[in-house]
Design goal:
Structural class: mainly alpha
Number of strands: 0
Number of domains: 1
Strand content: under 5%
Radius of gyration: 18 Å
Largest sheet: none
Helix content: over 70%
Order of helices and strands: HHHHHH
Shape: globular
Number of helices: 6
Distance between the termini: 18 Å
Length: 172
């Protein structure tokens, strides 16, 4: 019986971490977007992106969470820069998006840093599709917001794992 209770307790702790990361990343991104002039909170995809990043970054330990955040942030920065340059020259095109994703994946694999490839590829997809859905948003604001949301989701995941006493439990 004690094993069952410990398993349920551990599962509840994990669920609480994910729930906290999700709600805090959502509101952090939502209010960031709301604070920027001429950018409406109807752009809730940013809040979704911050939640996704936070959920992907959170790990069982602080060290592994910080490491995962590093991958997300650096990969996301490269994805945002590449997307910004692309959108300054061309508009959204599914083939262009696929080629750009292939480019960032190739870049990181060529540098023997495959852990950065997925965050970079996802960031390219989010920025380019968001530009298609909201063509009135400048590429610079779009890329900047999406990168800010990566920071928000990553930092919140680190804070949750780092400051909740049970989040340091290596058995979960």
């Amino acid at each position: 019986m004690k094993i069952f209770i410990n398993k349920i307790s551990g599962s509840a702790r994990i669920a609480i971490r994910y729930a906290l990361v999700s709600v805090l990343a959502y509101f952090g991104s939502y209010y960031l977007t709301d604070a920027i002039p001429h950018v409406s909170t109807r752009f809730a995809i940013g809040a979704l992106w911050a939640v996704i990043v936070g959920v992907v970054v959170i790990q069982a330990t602080l060290i592994s969470t910080v490491e995962k955040a590093g991958f997300q942030i650096l990969g996301g920065l490269v994805g945002a820069i590449v997307s910004l340059v692309y959108l300054e020259i061309l508009s959204f095109n599914p083939v262009g998006m696929a080629l750009l994703i292939g480019l960032v994946v190739f870049l990181f694999h060529s540098l023997n840093r495959p852990d950065y490839a997925i965050p970079a590829a996802l960031t390219v997809a989010v920025i380019l599709i968001f530009s298609y859905l909201n063509p009135e948003l400048s590429p610079l604001i779009n890329a900047g917001l999406r990168f800010s949301e990566i920071i928000i989701g990553s930092v919140i995941a680190i804070l949750i794992v780092g400051f909740l006493p049970y989040a340091r439990d290596k058995t979960v």
